[in-house]
Amino acid sequence: MQTRRIIRADGTEESLPRPVSTKDIARMIGAGPKGLDIVNLLQFGFPLWVMCVDGSGHETKTVDHGGGHFELVSIGHTKLVNEKATAIYRMRAPHSAHVIVGDVAIIPDDDYAE
């Protein structure tokens, strides 16, 4: 059973007893100027849960693979690696080298879906 919560980069967790606005989530996790990115947590089944991460947590560059295919590639991160959040992410993408950085929020997508 999943619960709404904040997972801090230091491993501590804080419960979120009710839906919180995305503006408040961004403030609570210290999101930078790029705002929130949302990661679907399909491994939790339905109803869908999502991880809200700081969109400014990684420095990126755009790689042009040709044929109109572009990819954003992380070239470093500006916050501490969040080991717990990375483990949750890798449940869905076990072979990914990508890491989740900074504080995150885990919430049901239904909090905002219409």
Ordered list of secondary-structure elements with their pairings:
Elements: E1 5-7, E2 13-15, H1 22-29, E3 36-40, E4 49-54, E5 58-64, E6 70-77, H2 83-92, E7 104-108
Antiparallel strand pairs: 1-2, 1-7, 3-4, 4-7, 5-6
Structure commentary:
This protein is of the alpha+beta class. The protein has one domain (5-111). Helices cover 16% and strands 32% of the residues. It has two helices and seven strands. It has a five-stranded antiparallel β-sheet with strand order 2-1-7-4-3, sandwiched between helices. β1 and β2 (13-15) form a beta hairpin. The longest helix has 10 residues, at 83-92. The two termini are 23 Å apart.
Concise description?
With 114 residues, the protein is of the alpha+beta class. The chain is 16% helix and 32% strand.
